[in-house]
Design brief:
About 65% of the residues lie in helices and about 10% in strands. It has 2 domains: about 160 residues, Helix Hairpins (Orthogonal Bundle); about 60 residues, no CATH class. It has about 280 residues and is an alpha+beta fold. The radius of gyration is 49 Å and the shape is rod-shaped. It has 5 helices and 6 strands, in the order ααααββαββββ.
Length: about 280
């Protein structure tokens, strides 16, 4: 294999690794954002649970205030009932007292319902807090691993960039420009040949072209313009037919009835075939 081709193989490998590492490094902010978004979801659940608890507490205070107001009204109406002079006025006050008592019972039922729900609310808050704590620990671990992976990627990127520059320095400038141009438009500038075929564009090569690649000559694929190279280790072994042909089985015959042919000569330049058997018949 020509040194230029070997350097191109090294270069293409380096190019692919550099591209992969750059993409992985560029994806780090997205990974961190996804991790933080997951944490934000759990925080929202906890915040909503706390808001629900606060809302229940506010409603309970509102109902308790309403009960106190109703109790004060009842007390006032009872005092007024002692001073009324007509039955009509008395019945009106009793009606107001009855209405206030109904209001008290309704608010007490609401408070009781809140007390029943309060236990479930507190459990929701505690569960969300525990989940958030566990997720924060897990997410911090993931972020640490992501940062460590990023640091390792940066290190490998520097190493592959050095290998890449070394490989580029070992390639003929004209060939390097051709490789760069094809790589830019086709994604790669080099292709392996195997079984008389360009493995990238899948075009069959002419026998002479294939032999040139196998012999280590510089060859450009006429179809995709990639530089071709041959790796004998990857060639598919073709099973060759046996040189010893199998003999067909001869049928069994009765020797006394078998007919054979033999040449016979009548004169100079004349010959004919005579078929005879073992009994002399012809």
């Amino acid at each position: 294999m020509l040194p230029d081709v070997q350097n191109l193989i090294d270069l293409q490998l380096a190019d692919r690794e550099v591209l992969r590492l750059k993409e992985e490094i560029a994806a780090l902010p997205k990974r961190v954002a996804a991790i933080e978004e997951k944490l934000a979801g759990t925080k929202t659940v906890l915040e909503n649970a706390k808001i629900a608890v606060k809302a229940d507490e506010a409603n309970r205070r509102k109902y308790e205030t309403a009960i106190k107001d109703a109790q004060q009204k009842i007390s006032k109406y009872r005092d007024q009932s002692l001073e009324v002079k007509t039955n009509e006025q008395y019945r009106a006050l009793m009606h107001e007292i009855q209405f206030a008592e109904q209001d008290i019972r309704a608010n007490e039922d609401k408070i009781l319902e809140l007390m029943v729900n309060a236990e479930a609310r507190e459990k929701s808050v505690k569960a969300a807090e525990l989940e958030l704590k566990a997720e924060m620990a897990e997410i911090e671990k993931e972020k640490t691993e992501a940062r460590e992976r990023n640091a390792e990627d940066e290190k490998q990127l520097a190493e592959w960039n050095a290998k890449r520059e070394k490989a580029r320095a070992g390639v003929d400038p004209d060939l390097l420009r051709h490789y760069d141009r094809v790589s830019k438009f086709r994604g790669s500038g080099l292709s392996e040949v195997r079984d008389q075929q360009c493995l990238t564009c899948r075009v069959m090569l002419r026998p002479q072209t294939y032999n040139d690649v196998r012999s280590g000559k510089m060859v450009i694929c006429e179809s995709c313009q990639r530089v071709l190279y041959y790796n004998p280790a990857n060639e598919i072994a073709v099973e060759r037919p046996s040189l010893t042909a199998k003999r067909r089985a001869r049928p069994k015959i009765h020797i006394d009835k078998a007919w054979f042919y033999r040449p016979d000569f009548e004169g100079i330049g004349e010959a004919f075939l005579a078929f005879v058997n073992t009994q002399g018949s012809s």
